[in-house]
Amino acid sequence: MIRxxxxxxxxxxxxxxxxxxxxxAFQPDMPDKASPAPWTQAPAARPDAIRFAVIGxxxxxxxxxxxxxxxxxxxxxxxxFLINVGDLVExxxxxxxxxxxxxxxxxxxxxxxxxxxxxxxxxxDLGNQAMLDVWRAKRGEPYYAxxxxxxxxxxxxxxxxxxxxxxxxxxxxHALAAQMKTDPAGTEEKLKAALAGVNxxxxxxxxxPAMAALESARFSQKQVDWALDTLKRHKDARWTFVLMHxxxxxxxxAEFDRIEAALGSRNYTVIAGHNHYYAHxxxxxxxxxxxxxxxxxxxQHGPGxxxxxAWITLDEGAPSISLLRLTGILDRKGESGQPLxx
Length: 342
Description:
Layout: H1 2-20, E1 50-55, H2 66-77, E2 81-84, H3 96-111, E3 117-118, H4 129-139, E4 144-148, E5 151-155, H5 167-182, H6 184-203, H7 209-215, H8 221-233, E6 240-243, H9 254-263, E7 268-272, E8 279-283, E9 286-290, E10 308-314, E11 320-325
Parallel strand pairs: 1-2, 2-3, 5-6, 6-7, 7-9
Antiparallel strand pairs: 1-10, 4-5, 8-9, 10-11
Protein name: Calcineurin-like phosphoesterase superfamily domain protein
Domain Calcineurin-like phosphoesterase: 51-278
Signal peptide: 1-20
């Protein structure tokens, strides 16, 4: 008899639970149910919405602590994931000890946050074959893709194959990187005149052949074939986000032209870094973003000179994109923790 009663009670509870179903996310509890509602509309749970953040270059020539604090700030905002656009280490060395130390510091900073972090490789991360070997040992191929909630994320490698600095230029660069650790403001001030001269030459079309080679965006045939196949296999993605380090569409890359053509009429957004200066343009009717910095020295001065995150929400229609300056992301004490950010 007791057993029958228990079985009957269990059956009743199961039936009640099945009838009740999941509770709505929003449940008003009004003192007068007939009164007007003091809100414009009920908030709706949107399980298909995607909210992620993008972070810009930490290097070359990192201002100490800016990136490390930036990932903590991003973590506090709780995006579903954080993805960078390359240049995490100063690099351009084949010394195994130096590379282990540099990557160890970055991995420690990223390891302290709770949200997922996706790596994108930059020229400072893949400055030579030794650095590529380290990257592959840690993270596999620098180009890859994934889908999330029906959206495709296509990650490209603009350093395929890597190209090293000349020994003379590398020595100058490493000396500056060392100075940035102890006197970031003074070192950056010294760089202003040199950068102004470089930008003036660029504006007239004058380029140093060695620097032009370093600045190029390079894609192997293997990578191009992989990218074309990936796009074909995910032709029905609700949206496609293409991320890379160098803005290849500005660098006369025939290989990227093929990838861009394969994007065709699908909905997509392209995001890059490298130039250390934020820029937005519309190309083929789509948004193309060049991220500003997250600690790297700015290459030019103006409204795009800023340390920031991009907060991207994909819900219904095109993504919503908002830029968040690191100096404006404050904790509960009203502090950003960013004394060197711009």
